[in-house]
Amino acid sequence: MDTFDFNKVNIHFIVKIKKCIMKRFVFMLLITFFCLGVSAQKFDNLAKTPPMGWNSWNKFGCNVRESLIMGMADAMVSSGMKDAGYEFIIIDDCWQVSRDGNGEIVADKERFPNGIKYLADYLHSKGLKFGIYSCAGTKTCAGRPGALGHEYQDALTYAKWGVDYLKEDWCNTGTQEAKSSYTNMRDAIYTAGRPIVFSLCEWGSNKPWEWAGAVGHLWRTTGDISDSWNSMITIFSQQKDLTRYAGPGHWNDPDMLEVGNGGMTTDEYKTHFSLWCMLAAPLLAGNDLQNMTPETRSILMNKEIIALDQDTLGRPATCYRDNADYQIWIKPLANNEKAVCLLNKSDEKKTVLVDFALLAQASSGRRGGGARGGPSLTIENFLIRDLWDHKDFVMKEN
Fold first, then answer.
1. Catalytic, out of 92, 169, 253, 311
2. What is the pLDDT of residues 202-248, one digit of tens each?
3. pLDDT tens digit string along 377-386?
4. What is the pLDDT of residue 111?
5. Is the separation of the CB atoms in 35 and 393 below 8 Å?
6. pLDDT-based confidence at 359, cuts 50/70/90?
7. Most buried residue, 36, 90, 128, 141, by CB count within 10 Å?
């Protein structure tokens, strides 16, 4: 076993543990084994890994406009985020103002003077994808026109505009039934003929994880996140029993990222990002991409952590050990690898003993003496890597 102090410098992991001085910390490891070892009418070949991109709401709310969205697209490319895997630029609420005499949805001409298709074409020219917002009710959450009664009409409009991603909210729905309402929009999208990633923003009120896999590609599991540790860690805790519902093409969505918006410390943002990646959650940045600190950039573009989220196996982490404020989460990965997350949720430093040989074998059904009929493994049979410091290190049996 090896001892980790969440609050002290340790000679084996100097850089990593130096970063543990903050009050809360997550420790990420990648462990590699050395051993052998028309149905539902949605577009099925989309979102095989969790969607990655940027959404306007967390930072800008209703203050959206053409120049802002184009600027964010430019920044996504120039900052290196596109190269790191981010591809969607999504306008949230407040882009629409009314419907015309034919019932067509009308964009705000003052804020989007060239129209929505012009914006979509611009994003596509950058090698990005375009997302837009709607709501299943009579009005959106900000009081703009909703989709109720116009689902097929709107789906055709979005297809003509070149929309690649649709987020549909759940405000002002009255007595509507969630599954049938979202199924109606799913069928409208399919009928329109353009493959569109469909995101259900139903807040988990009707247990969408039990039925939304055949309806959309991702579904919100909780209410909205806010830029605080308590909000983030509460939402994370609510995902504990939902991991079995997610996989390629159908993902739990614990809401957008708050990284870089200023309400948490750098280590808390690192924890936020790490946990979302362990959950195989959609990674939708919600900060100002044109004004990122070096710390924010290093978090959002940590390609080794992103690789956990985008792993082709598509398996979210499960909680291996839960000792109140200290938890161990394990995420199985493709290529005979797994990720281990040591999470300290408290304000106090913690020193823990970690049996990496045990953890390395845990999720593959091997405990202690190895798999039935297989060889007994020791810590020397594994490679262990710190994904925040990007370093391999050697562990020895005590």
1. 169
2. 999 999 999 999 999 999 999 999 999 999 999 999 999 999 999 99
3. 666 777 889 9
4. 98
5. no
6. confident
7. 90
pLDDT for res 156: 98
Q: Quick check: is 169 catalytic?
A: yes
Q: From the candidates 224, 267, 386, 389, give the one annotated as an active-site residue.
A: 224
CB 164 within 8 A of CB 174: no
Q: Is 164 a catalytic residue?
A: no
Is the Cα torsion angle 301, 303, 306, 310 positive or negative in sign?
positive
> Phi/psi class of residue 250: alpha, beta or left (left: φ > 0; alpha: ψ in -120 to 50)?
beta
The phi-psi region of residue 85 (left if phi > 0; otherwise alpha if psi is between -120 and 50; otherwise beta) is left
pLDDT at 3 over 70: no
Provide the 8-state DSSP code for 139. B
List pLDDT tens digits, range 292-326: 999 999 999 999 999 999 999 999 999 999 998 99
Of 33, 35, 36, residue with least CA distance to 383: 33
Residue ranges of alpha helices (H) inside the chain are 14-18, 57-60, 66-78, 81-84, 116-125, 151-161, 178-192, 229-237, 266-278, 294-300, 303-309, 356-362
Distance CA 222, CA 194 (A): 29
Residue with tokens 């709401």: 57
Q: Are 125 and 142 in contact (CB under 8 A)?
A: no
The residue written with tokens 């040591």 in the block is 342
Q: What's the predicted TM-score (pTM) here?
A: 0.90
Q: Output Rg (C-alpha) for the chain, integer angstroms.
A: 22
Q: Are 15 and 298 in contact (CB under 8 A)?
A: no
Under 8 Å between Cβ of 253 and 221: yes
Backbone angles phi, psi at 338, to 5 degrees: -155, 160
- The upper half-sphere exposure of residue 135, i.e. CA atoms within 13 Å in the direction of its Cβ, equals 21
